[in-house]
Amino acid sequence: MTQDELKALVRTVPDFPHAGILFRDVTTLIGHGEGFAVAVTLLAQQAAAIGAEAVAGIEARGFIFGAAVAARLGLPFVPVRKPGKLPVPVLALDYALEYGTGTLEVDPGAVHAGQQVVVIDDLVATGGTALAAVELLRKATARADHALFLIDLPDLGGADRLRGAGVAVQSLMDFPGH
Predict the structure, then answer these.
(1) CATH number of the domain that residue 117 is part of
(2) pTM confidence score
(3) What is the total count of domains within the chain?
(4) Which of helix, strand or coil describes residue 104?
(5) How far apart, in Å, are the Cα atoms of 71 and each of 10, 40, 54, 169?
(6) Per-residue pLDDT tens for 39-51?
């Protein structure tokens, strides 16, 4: 499957969640067996090449790709959750979103000091959520200096924002605009 064929599996939904937004919907890619397998394989190759020792996925679509990559590589999966979902004491971080604020939580016992954890999510837009996940993992004493995404929206600057925080960023495809 070519890069263009993989990219064609991502559905664009205009005016969601607000007028003027072109929402990049990965559920069509996930629903295509071969396309999903190719995307997971490519992300797993990138994670292996950087020496990942664990994979952190950001709720919710990052769970889909991150868990699949972790399973493919035989690595631990670290869920980065929305508030109130983990049954143990957590590290939490509030952060700014494009349309408000959010909070992420992680179980600090899910990572080890100095462990190389790669962050995976479906899409990087402004980078706020991914940066919060990186900060949480670092607070938990992991090394979180790589992030992998299925999609980058470069016009929104999120990948550059992560790079400015010392995070190497890779994506399988990009879409202009927002």
Answers:
(1) 3.40.50.2020
(2) 0.96
(3) 1
(4) strand
(5) 23, 10, 10, 21
(6) 999 999 999 999 9
